[in-house]
């Protein structure tokens, strides 16, 4: 998949992560979407390292790792902003 596909994939993963982890985020919806995209990249990269999907295909494994990556980054961002 190209970079544009991964951005769209990350956008979807970020929206799902926000749906799973509702609440007010410091920075608003744009920052939350950007964190979702970054989380999808990180999750996809880490997932490809452990064999759960790959950065080059669209599979259930890569989608799950993208959502988990977005959740981790969103949770970390919330913790940093509270401190």
UniProtKB/TrEMBL annotation:
Pfam family name, one: Transgly_assoc
Keyword Transmembrane helix: yes
The keyword Nucleotide-binding belongs to this UniProt entry's keyword annotation: no
Keyword annotations from UniProtKB, A to Z: Cell membrane, Membrane, Transmembrane, Transmembrane helix
Membrane-topology descriptor: Multi-pass membrane protein
InterPro entries recorded: Transgly_assoc
Subcellular location: Cell membrane
GO terms under cellular component: plasma membrane
Entry's transmembrane regions: 27-46, 58-80
Family note: Belongs to the UPF0410 family.
Protein name (Swiss-Prot/TrEMBL): Putative membrane protein YeaQ/YmgE (Transglycosylase-associated protein family)
Species this chain originates from: Halomonas stenophila
